[in-house]
From TrEMBL:
Residues 12-136, 141-258 form the DUF4931 domain. It holds the Pfam family DUF4931_C. InterPro entries: DUF4931 (IPR046322), DUF4931_C (IPR049285), GalT_short (IPR012361), HIT-like_sf (IPR036265). It comes from the Bacteria. This is Galactose-1-phosphate uridylyltransferase. It comes from Clostridium puniceum.
């Protein structure tokens, strides 16, 4: 009889989390810690508005957690950045993500962003996170089909589509380039468009999203998910759903932002 390897779980450190500030829940916060740059510590790199530093509240065991602060202030979002700011931000973040991945110290390295009260984030100030995982390979559960779907935009260096078979269900947009990074500016430009669409023109009101980066099969892939309350079918049974109007969603994004 074949012995199946048990799934590995990350351990959440509650004793650290209890002191962590959370603006959405109004816990442990009087002012935004990312706006008060003079008191930031453990800074790894800084370029203009961008700061990469160690996470002051590393709530996940057996990981190396970094925060990338995107702006000087809280009152903006990725969809409102200038083209130049967006390009520089993505180039800065991807450079550090791939550098940590390449040093081989971790089983895998994840790069992602939370935005809004339904995203799993705790601070409004725009930021991203890079996390080195000591024992878990995020690529093990990833399938090619999660990044295939309705084509919205395609150029020599970049593809934008809407997932036919999304990782978690409903609406997931993918932006795909080669990992030679020649298409990185176009990825940044198109990511800005998708975020602006979700926060301003999605078919229902949306105030939260997640962005996830993947380095797979010589590709850099960026997946953008609008976030709402999670489906009980997904939580309880692992049953995924897709929208009945996915073609309409893709057509609206294409018409408003890619023509």
């Amino acid at each position: 009889m074949i012995q199946m390897e048990k799934e590995k779980y990350l351990v959440f450190l509650n004793e650290i989390n209890k002191d962590k500030p959370n603006e959405f829940k109004k816990v442990n916060i009087k002012k935004c810690p990312f706006c008060n740059r003079a008191e930031l510590t453990d800074i790894i790199d800084e370029k203009g508005p961008f700061i990469l530093l160690k996470n002051k509240y590393p709530t996940i065991k057996d990981t190396y957690q970094l925060v990338l602060i995107e702006t000087y202030n809280c009152d903006t979002d990725m969809g409102e950045y200038s083209i130049e700011h967006m390009e520089e931000l993505i180039r800065f973040g991807v450079k550090h993500w791939l550098k940590i991945e390449e040093n081989g110290e971790f089983t895998s390295v994840i790069f992602y962003k939370n935005h809004g009260p339904n995203s799993g984030g705790s601070l409004k100030h725009p930021h991203m996170q890079i996390v080195g995982l000591n024992e878990i390979d995020y690529k093990a559960k990833i399938k090619d089909e999660y990044f295939e779907g309705i084509e919205i935009h395609k150029s020599d260096q970049c593809l934008v589509n809407l997932s036919h078979r999304p990782f978690n269900g409903f609406t997931e947009f993918n932006i795909i380039i080669n990992d030679d990074l020649y298409g990185l500016n176009e990825l940044a430009y198109n990511l800005r468009k998708v975020v602006h669409y979700l926060l301003n023109n999605y078919f229902v009101k949306c105030d939260s999203f997640n962005i996830f980066f993947y380095h797979l099969k010589e590709k850099i892939i960026c997946k953008i998910m609008p976030r709402f309350s999670s489906s009980p079918l997904l939580l309880g049974y692992g049953i995924k759903q897709i929208s009945s109007c996915e073609q309409e969603i893709a057509d609206k994004l294409k018409t408003m932002y890619f023509q």
